[in-house]
Amino acid sequence: MLYKKGGSEFNNFKALFTECFGEGDVLAEEILGYARDFGEIHYLIEDGKIVTMLCLAGLETGLKYLFAVATSPEYRKRGLFAKNLSLSVTENERIVCIPENKTLFPLYDKVGFIKHGYVLQANIVGDGSLLQKTTDIDLDKLYEIYKNSSFFPKKPKELFFSTIRCHLLYGGTIINDKNFYALISKSSGKSIINELCVITIDEQRIPELIKGCTVGETTINLPIKFISLLKENGIKYRNRKIFALKSEKFENNQFYINILYN
C-alpha cells in the first residue's frame, strides 16, 4: 500500500469520486479541482489503483475542513480511511467534517472526531414576500455579505466561491439583497433554506427573511446562536447534528459549520 499526496492523478480521482457518489463529471471537476488548486489531496494506491482518497482545505484560525472522502467499494471495511487520515494529518491538527449522513458519525468517532456540532432546524410556511426583490447573483458581493456575518470559522474566498458554484450545480437557487443571501433547494416538493447568511448588524431581520425567501412549507438551518431570536418570534425548532470536530482547542458550540460540500 503506497501513500501519496498531490493532484497529479486528477482523472483517477474523478473516476473514484464518481464511482463512490454517482455524481456527474462537472461536479467532480468543481470539488476536486478546488482541492487540487487550493487544498490538499491525499490517497493510497494498491496494485497500481487509487483505492481511497481524502481532501483537506484550510479555514480560518488554522482549522482544516475534511471533504470528498472516498474509498472504492471493493476495498471498504479494511480501515483504509483511518490509515490514510493518519498519514495525512498530524496528531495536533484541528479538523472538522460534515459526515454524509448520521450513520457515519460512529466511524468519525473512531478516528478522533469525538465532538459533534449542531444547527437549529425550523419548519415554517414561506409567504414569498422577498422573491421579487432578489438582485443578480454576484459572487464577490455574496462573499462580502459572508465576510460581514457572524459565521465562524470563515472559508477562504476561493472555497466560498466553489461551494456556491456547487450549490448551483446541485440545482439550488439563491435569494439575496445587499445585506443577506439564502441558499435554497427543493426536496419532495418542499423548500429547504440550506443556509441563511445575514450581515451581523441586520440579524434581527432573520424572522422576516425566513418567511420571505420561499413559498409554502419550508425547512431552514440556522446557527445555534439564534435560539433566543427564534423563541422571541414563536418559531419552533429542533437541534440537528451536522458536523464532527477533531480538536482540543475549539468547542463545538463555538462553530457554525453547514454548507461546504455536503
What can you tell me about this protein's structure?
The protein has 262 residues and is α+β, with helices and mostly antiparallel strands. It has two domains: 2-97, Aminopeptidase; 118-241, Aminopeptidase (3-Layer(aba) Sandwich). The protein has eight helices and eleven strands. The chain has an eleven-stranded mixed β-sheet with strand order 1-2-3-4-5-11-6-10-9-8-7, with helices on both faces. Helix 2 packs antiparallel against helix 6 (157-169). The longest helix has 14 residues, at 25-38. The protein is globular and about 60 Å long. The two termini are 29 Å apart. 33% of the residues are buried. The mean pLDDT is 92.
Return residue spans where pLDDT drops below 50 for at least 5 consecutive residues.
Answer: none
What series of H and E elements makes up the topology? EHHEEEHEHEHHEEEHEHE
**Total helical elements:** 8
Give the beta-strand count.
11
CATH topology term of the largest domain = Aminopeptidase
Strand numbers in spatial order across the main sheet: 1-2-3-4-5-11-6-10-9-8-7
Q: From the alpha carbons, calculate the radius of gyration and give it in angstroms.
A: 19 Å
CATH architecture of the largest domain: 3-Layer(aba) Sandwich
Measured between the Cα atoms of the first and last residue, the distance is 29 Å
Q: How much strand?
A: 25-35%
- Work out the oligomeric state of the chains in this entry: single chain
Strand pairing plus helix content: what structural class? Answer: alpha+beta
Percent range of helical residues = 25-40%
**Chain-averaged pLDDT:** 92
Number of domains: 2
- Please give the largest β-sheet: 11 strands, mixed
Which word captures the global form?
globular
